[in-house]
Amino acid sequence: MRIDSFIAENAIKNPHQIALEEGKNTISYDCLDEEIKRIASPMMEFGNCRFAVLAEPGIQYIEMLMAVYKSDNIAIPLPIELAMFSLERILDTANINNIIVTDAQYSRLSEAFFDRFGTVIIVSEDNSVNILRKEVIKENNNPHLRLVLYTSGTTGTPKGVMLSDRNMVANAESIINILGISPADKAAMVISPHHAYGNSIINSHLVAGGSICLGSMNFMGSVFSMMESGISMFYGVPSTYRLLLRYPEKFRDAFTNIRLAATAGGAIDATIVENLKNSNPDVRVMPMYGQTEATARLAYLPSEDVDEFVDTIGKAIPGVTLDVFDSGGRSVEPDNRGELVARGDNIMLGYLDDEFATEKKIINGWMYTGDLAQKLPNGYFRLLGRKDDIIKIGDHRVNPRELEKYIKDNNDVSGVFVVPVSHELLGNAISLMVMPGSGTDVDSIFSFCRENLPGYLCPLEVLCIDQLPLSENGKISNRSIIEGYQNVKNSM
User: Fold this and answer.
1) Final residue of a domain: which of 351, 367, 386?
2) What average pLDDT values come out for the chain (492 residues) when binned by 10 residues?
3) Helix 3-13 vs helix 165-179: angle between axes, to the nearest 10 degrees?
4) pTM to 2 decimals?
5) Domain range spanning residue 46?
6) Residue 233 belongs to a domain with what CATH number?
7) Count of domains in the chain?
8) 214: number of CA atoms within 13 Å, CB side?
């Protein structure tokens, strides 16, 4: 089944149930199903063709996405928060002839942007559909392909992750299982729906027949109001919770009736967990781990183990098998290190138009995540950093995440970020960016490093920063850390 088919089923079983909310606007399952059919109508004669979807986050975006599914075509969402050159890189890579776009986004971009498309379908604010031009060209796509999500668009070569109906439904059903999502649940989603995590939230709640309240983190007041509107489940990345917890009293008042706080998109620390539980002792905190290539999620940490094992990603979600392999592709014993691998029905079909990258990512049925990990005796997994993030300094290979943790745990700072910088003799050296605590002293950090680290790990400089080095997706990565460092240096 496709995701839109579950919406149609829910429209029959529970037609007046609210499916989506956005501000003061709501739409029931029966009305949502009708809008999807209407928007899908001009795309029906294509069949298995690629359609870019360009729409601002909200109810209309979900309607348009599901309409592409309903018409038996392939959706390629374009995140509107990306810069123009990033969007164009995706389009140049994806070979897309067709686009469905909101009137607002069509007006925002130049006509020249749309000249590349043979088909342009514009959806107005009232959901009326205008076919600007239409060119039906037969395409030779994977017959199982339904959705393409791009993992990168700012630097490097963007990769289109190919997902099937089976991928999306399998992952949605696993998430429904571990979170206990029911039609009675109303979820708050304040992260981008264009990316894997947001897409997973949409799928799981619409399959379960629940409700989704759509918003953003642009205005804190509206987020707190949303949380107080009958929300039972709240989703965010770690930075989402950090921002909200800057207003402890408002957060505590709004968080009172939320039964589950889920997080993904990066490691959550013990301080956030403690603050969440202090705000609502009855809340279940559920950290999750995943990748776009796995239709979002691979592992979860059961809420009852969050306090003891918050430094792990927990165990595989239902339907997924996780393991740790050495460099020879052999499973390692507990406590040994290697690369985290996964297999299951949620693992992608491959990368769009890139067989070479696909063959490097999926080997003998296992997807290689690129994350270094350790398998614990209890079956949980601990991440040790990205394989690609390893820094070579002279003859030494350094895991920046381990170094960051060691420095943070032994100094009065709220965050530490290791930055690889060029060095004439060693090839690379490191600088540090730190988010200061109440008693941070840069000289003390230098002294600690000199006394406790080998010379090649002593930082060339320590820079204080006042915000997290986040990527456009709200994540912290080696790339975002380097970009953050360059921004700081350019402003000095």
Assistant:
1) 386
2) 96 97 95 97 96 96 98 95 80 92 92 93 94 95 96 62 97 97 96 92 98 92 92 91 90 93 87 92 95 94 95 96 94 93 97 94 95 93 83 79 89 90 83 89 92 89 87 69 85 79
3) 50
4) 0.84
5) 1-386
6) 3.40.50.12780
7) 2
8) 24
